[in-house]
Every structure is written in structure tokens, then in C-alpha cells.
Design a protein that fits this description.
By secondary structure, the chain is an alpha/beta fold. Helix content is about 25%, strand content about 25%. The longest helix is centred in the middle third of the chain and has 21 residues.
């Protein structure tokens, strides 16, 4: 089972390699779901590719965002450079980008990002069928569900095991986009989930902020036993020390080494096993959302009974009863109760005296461990990642000495080199070197990226083989092998770029349709002569809940519902995140797919850019925008109002499946300016009703004729970054 590690810059990249990562996912500047990370320039990326390949490590390019047509096509030159350099795989969210890469780089491995919200084996099998080689499953799946997916598909599966969790299903979070134009699906999430909110009862807390995930030995063994190909660690924006330590920890677990977990001492906002055991409690930390460190103890007057060891150079922070940070300090003096002299350290259980306690401080957290960070720094300096190689040495009087070295690259291809001495070997006049000495000297590859595991020495026991010759053969052979190994990843791209030739959309006869949540809304739509009426559905089809997905519905809310639908004409809902012509074309290949509702994250200008394909285009013109689809019930009430510190209000609704759906309180409404849409190439205008009363439903439907009401365009006017 491989470890897929994060790297947000070169320093983190080196830390991941040295710690023993098998695969590393990295972004290029301007693209990917972590555009706020430092990321890599093109020259840095090519340098990293060679460095990784010398050490048997694969690199995956993160392009896991939704894109416009021109952005997809503009990627070609950079992709071509990285492809020809030996890029191992690309991680994508956008089906349009998938198709472009597949057509232009047909032998490139493509992985489906967790942003695709793949939660069952039917969706995984579909991705395999069209050309994906791996899928990163949704983090909300339990191990029983992961196992069921694995048993029903042979596409490679990758599972997140540590790091930050999104509270919404990845790919189905739009809150940052709709309230500020910074789209998570475009890699610029502003993380509103980590903000404090006030609920209907006037209580304040971080109700949408999950603890980080941290699986242990038991969970890793379960994944290993079920045959999962790779485990994934989150952390492209975390420190190199965090990356090194976390990779090292999971390397130890995979190899059944007795190892202590120390990641939680480097970054800590609370930890859980995530959804691995199907738990719905213990996911959220409503007290705080940032890195507090490890709890050290509660303040009692001017002293504290510490629960963690403490030493000079550690960092501590003071926290109020309401979990507000009040300041902190580097520990420069330690006084233990009932001891007269200052100490260099204190043990867990000691009572430590405090000098300057900020007013209102209740708790102390240890947010920096000097001993741990020093230990990791030494590890990074000393650690080394090598490739295992085999070799054969031949030495016989009257022949040239030869050294053959062999290894495999990460594609499984055999790489070999042969180095010969310049002259024939002569008989030794004095002491003859032994085969064991030859083997020892040839295996001294400490300055290289290789480690000789198997070496055959065929020596006649008579020839004079000086140590200088052995060293030269080893040095020349390993250098040549390194060059051949790196070059084995090189390849040539197709000569000409393949693009879709599409025309711009023309004016069309536009139909109206509605999505209803109850019978009174349906009745109102029928009274107004609307024939196309869809039912509300579930955004995600989990492996254990496929029976709850309505396959008779004419509206597909997830990929499973589209693939298994029993209708001959199906509409694809906007939460499938369709933003370009390439994606429309790809969805149009699925039998029955008739209409796609374009993502409401797009502005009108971006909507107009999408070309004509064989599939109809829909656009939502009214409805409460769903900001999040959350696996767990955040509150027990069927509906709760949340308010942020900017005064924005949101409704959290508990659905029939015990999920939470977060809606913006004010509905999007484009109806007053419908005339703007006449030349946008739209075939169908969609109205979404959630909790509107019969009277409110009638009012909205009547406004289709009068073009009245409050114009509230959200992203339709401003777009997203």
C-alpha cells in the first residue's frame, strides 16, 4: 500500500521524499484545489520530477478544479512539458479536462479527485470505463462501504487517512463561492467552515468546523487487508516538519514497525477517525477551529498541573474559558512547585508555577515542542530515499572486469547498465582480494540514490582487482544508471493539439421547468402550465444507500442517478459542476443524458462562452442556493438558522436521510432581468423551490410574466475567481 504525500513547495517536497513517500501530489502555480498554496513553477516542477524519479517516487499533478474552455486549452503547453518530462499522473475533478487530457496524452494516468464525490462502485466503474486509472473516494465513506466498493471494482482506490476534513462533501461546497466569489471548486476556498457562527438559540460556536482526521494502526491494517492501493495524507499548506513526521508515521504503520504518533503535537485542532466507523458524533470541534496544540492543563491560581512534558524552548499559549487565545510565550524558565531552583524540564503530573498569566486565562496549550522539532530536523537532514538495485560483477584473468547494475522504474520497466574496465585483468602478484571484499566495496553506494540489495560476485580468485578499479566501476555504473533511470520516464507528446470545434450558442426557444420539494409546489407549477417538473433528490449516492436513490427521477443529482436512470431523457443537476463545453460533450455520451443545468457559480459572460454540443443547456434562474451538503446532522432540529459575523444568515435543514443541507437565506433571483438570457444559448430555465409556501410559489411563478421581484444575481453577475 502506497503513501500519497502532499507538497506545497520544494521544501515540503524534499521532506515527503526523505520520509518515504511513494507518491506525491503537487500543484503548479495558478491551478489546482490549493491555489493559495505556494505551489511550483514549471522549472521547479521538472526539477522535482527528476529528483523523484531518481528515487523511485511518482509525482501527480493536481488539476482538481473546474475550468473554462480557454483555461483547459491554455494548459496544453505546460502539460506537454511535464508529460514529456515523465509526469506520472494528473488528478482531475472536471470531466471536460479529463477528456482533453485523454485525447491529447492518451497514455497519461488520470486520477479522479475526491472533488468528484465518487461514493459507490457504479461511479468508480464508470470512471474506469472511460479511462481513469484511479479514484480518490469521498472521505465520508465508512470502511464497510470502502470494502464494498473495492469488492465490486478493480480500479485503483485511494483513501484519505489524515489531515483536514471538509465538513461538506468535497465538490459540493459552494459557500465560499456564493458569499464572496472565492470558489472551492476553483481552488480558492476562503474556508467559511472555520468561522464562528451564532445559531437560532443565540449560542456561538464553530458549528461547521470538523476536527482533523488521523487514522491509526487498526484502520491502516483494515485498508491494507482489503487491498487498497494508496493512502492519502492532506497537508500541502502545512509545514515541512508536519509532512515529514506524518509520512514517517504512516510508513511505520504500513511496514508494521512499532511507532509513536507525533503528528498531533505539530498541528492540533482536535482529531477523530473521521467517518471510518460510520460515526456521526465527534466529527465537529465547535470550541475552536485553528491550531491550538496539545492541552497542557487548567490554570489554578498561579499554577498548573501539566499533562504533557515541558522543557525550555517549548511554546505555550493561554486560552480563555471561551477558547479565545490570549497570548503565549516561549518557555525560558520552569519553576516546579516545592522546588527552589529553576528546572530545565518538567514531567507530566508536575505542578508548574506561572509568572505572568493574562487576565481571563483558563487553559494552557503547548503549541510547540522543541524536542520533537529538533528530532524531526535531524531526521530530515539524515534521511535518505533510495532505489533498490541488483548487480553482477565479473572478474577473470585475461578479461575486462565488468559490473552490471539493474533496477526497475516505477512503471515496472527494467533498466540496466554495464561498465567495463579499460584494460584486461592480470594475475595478482601479492595478496588476492576476496569476493567478500569486492562485494563490500561495491555496495558502498552511500553518495548515490541507490542501494544494492542483491549482488553476485563471479571472481576467479586470481586476478589483480585494485580498490580504485572497484570504486571507479561502481561510480561510473551508478551515475550511468541514474541517467538511464531518469531518461526512461521521457516520452514524446502527439504533434498536434486536439480541441473541440464548437460553435457559439444562438437564440433558442426556451422552456421552463421547476424542481419541487412538496406537493403544493408541484400543484402550483401544474396550474401555471409547466410540464417539466423535477423532484428534490440527494446530492450523493453512498455505497450503502443506493436503494434510497430514485432512479425514476428525471433529474440526476449525482453520477449514479444518471448512470442507472430508467428514463430515456434525463436532466443533470447543477451540482455536477459543469462549466465548459468539453464536460458537456463528455456527459452527452451517457445514454439518456438530455439536458445539463450549468453551474450557478458562473457569470453570464462565462455561460455565454460555453459552446453548442449535442446536449441541451439549462440554467437556474430562481432558488435558494445550496452552500453545503453535509453527511451528518449538524443540529437535531429540522431547521436551524446560522448567522456569521458579517450578518449573513443561512438555513441548515436536516433532510430525510439525516444529512444537513445548508442554504443561503436569500434566494438567487434572475427573473426580473430574464431578457439578459435570451442570447445566452440556454434551452431551459429552471426554478428551484425548497421551503417556499404555496403563496410564495405562486408569487414566483407569476413573476415569470411580470418580470418583477428582487433581482439577486449572486455569482451570475460577479462570477468567481
Amino acid at each position: 500500500m502506497n503513501i500519497v504525500a502532499p507538497a506545497g513547495n520544494m521544501e515540503r517536497f524534499y521532506a515527503a521524499v526523505k520520509a518515504g513517500a511513494d507518491e506525491i501530489y503537487m500543484g503548479i502555480k495558478g491551478f489546482g484545489a490549493r491555489r493559495n498554496a505556494e505551489n511550483f513553477t514549471l522549472s521547479e516542477y521538472t526539477e522535482a520530477l527528476d529528483y523523484a524519479h531518481e528515487r523511485g517516487v511518482k509525482i501527480f499533478l493536481t488539476l482538481n478544479t473546474v475550468m473554462r474552455d480557454r483555461e483547459i486549452e491554455a494548459l496544453y503547453e505546460n502539460l506537454k512539458t511535464l508529460y514529456e518530462r515523465g509526469l506520472d499522473a494528473v488528478i482531475v475533478q472536471d470531466l471536460g479536462l479529463f477528456r482533453f487530457i485523454r485525447d491529447n496524452f492518451p497514455d497519461m494516468d488520470i486520477h479522479g479527485s475526491t472533488q468528484m464525490t465518487v461514493a459507490n462502485h457504479i461511479e468508480a466503474e464508470y470512471l474506469k470505463k472511460i479511462g481513469f486509472s484511479r479514484v480518490v473516494l469521498s472521505r465520508e465513506l465508512s470502511f464497510q462501504e470502502i470494502k464494498a466498493v473495492k469488492e465490486n471494482t478493480d480500479i485503483e482506490l485511494e483513501i484519505f487517512v489524515s489531515g483536514a476534513l471538509c465538513i461538506s462533501y468535497s465538490g459540493n461546497c459552494y459557500l465560499s463561492s456564493f458569499i464572496g466569489g472565492r470558489s472551492g471548486n476553483r481552488g480558492l476556498c476562503a474556508q467559511p467552515c472555520r468561522k464562528e457562527y451564532e445559531n437560532s438559540q443565540g449560542e456561538k460556536g464553530y458549528f461547521l468546523s470538523p476536527k482533523d482526521q488521523l487514522m491509526g494502526q487498526k484502520e491502516i491494517k483494515k485498508l491494507k487487508d482489503m487491498g487498497i492501493e494508496s493512502i492519502k495524507l492532506e497537508g500541502r499548506m502545512k509545514s515541512p516538519h508536519y509532512v515529514f513526521e506524518t509520512v514517517s508515521y504512516y510508513r511505520g504503520l504500513i511496514e508494521d514497525i512499532d511507532i509513536t504518533e507525533r503528528t498531533s503535537h505539530l498541528f492540533n485542532r482536535g482529531y477523530s477517525k473521521g467517518y471510518f466507523y460510520g460515526d456521526r458524533d465527534g466529527i465537529i470541534n465547535s470550541k475552536y477551529s485553528s491550531d491550538f496544540g496539545k492541552f497542557l492543563g487548567s490554570i489554578e491560581g498561579k499554577e498548573i498541573k501539566i499533562s504533557e512534558n515541558l522543557m525550555l524552548g517549548d511554546g505555550i499559549s493561554y486560552v480563555s474559558e471561551e477558547y479565545e487565545k490570549l497570548g503565549g510565550e516561549n518557555v525560558s524558565k520552569i519553576r516546579i512547585k516545592d522546588k527552589s531552583e529553576n528546572q530545565k524540564s518538567a514531567k507530566a503530573g508536575d505542578r508548574v508555577l506561572l509568572d505572568k498569566v493574562p487576565k481571563g486565562a483558563k487553559y494552557v496549550y503547548k503549541n510547540y515542542s522543541k524536542r520533537l522539532n529538533d528530532d524531526i530536523s535531524r531526521g530530515i537532514k539524515q534521511a535518505k530515499k533510495t532505489v533498490d538495485i541488483d548487480g553482477t560483477f565479473h572478474g577473470k584473468i585475461g578479461q575486462k572486469a565488468t559490473l552490471e547494475l539493474m533496477c526497475k522504474n516505477s512503471k515496472g520497466e527494467n533498466i540496466s547498465v554495464v561498465e567495463n574496465s579499460e584494460t584486461l585483468l592480470e594475475e595478482a602478484s601479492k595478496r588476492v582480494i576476496t569476493p567478500e571484499e569486492i562485494k563490500t566495496k561495491l555496495c558502498e553506494t552511500g553518495e548515490t540514490t541507490f542501494s544494492i540489495k542483491n549482488l553476485n560476485v563471479n571472481f576467479d580468485g586470481k586476478a589483480f582487482v585494485p580498490l580504485s578499479l572497484i570504486k571507479k566501476l561502481r561510480r561510473d555504473a551508478t551515475e550511468t544508471l541514474k541517467e538511464k533511470l531518469v531518461l526512461s520516464y521521457r516520452r514524446e507528446a502527439l504533434k498536434d493539439i486536439k480541441k473541440i470545434n464548437y460553435s457559439r450558442s444562438a437564440n433558442k426557444n426556451i422552456d421552463f421547468s421547476v424542481i419541487v420539494s412538496n406537493s403544493s409546489q408541484r400543484d402550483a407549477a401544474l396550474r401555471h402550465g409547466i410540464e417539466k417538473i423535477y423532484e428534490k433528490g440527494l446530492d450523493v449516492a453512498k455505497e450503502s444507500q443506493l436503494g434510497r436513490i430514485d432512479l425514476e427521477s428525471g433529474l440526476a443529482w449525482n453520477l449514479y442517478q444518471l448512470l442507472e436512470n430508467k428514463n430515456s431523457s434525463i436532466t443533470v443537476n447543477w451540482n455536477m459542476n459543469i462549466t465548459n463545453t468539453y464536460a458537456l460533450e463528455e456527459l452527452g455520451k451517457i445514454p439518456g443524458a438530455d439536458t445539463v443545468i450549468i453551474s450557478p457559480e458562473l457569470s453570464l459572460d462565462r455561460v455565454k462562452e460555453i459552446g453548442e454540443t449535442g446536449i441541451r443547456k439549462g440554467l437556474m434562474i430562481y432558488g435558494k442556493l445550496k452552500g453545503m451538503f453535509i453527511e451528518i446532522p449538524i443540529f437535531q432540529e429540522e431547521k436551524t438558522i446560522l448567522k456569521n459575523d458579517q450578518g449573513d444568515q443561512f438555513e441548515i435543514v436536516r433532510n430525510s436521510n439525516e444529512n444537513s443541507e445548508l442554504y443561503l437565506e436569500k434566494p438567487m433571483n434572475l427573473i426580473p432581468k430574464l431578457d439578459k438570457l435570451l442570447d445566452a444559448g440556454i434551452d431551459e430555465l429552471v426554478i428551484l423551490f425548497t421551503d417556499e409556501s404555496e403563496e410564495e410559489t405562486e408569487k414566483i411563478l407569476n413573476s415569470l410574466k411580470t418580470k418583477t421581484g428582487e433581482y439577486n444575481p449572486y455569482n451570475f453577475q460577479r462570477g468567481v475567481y
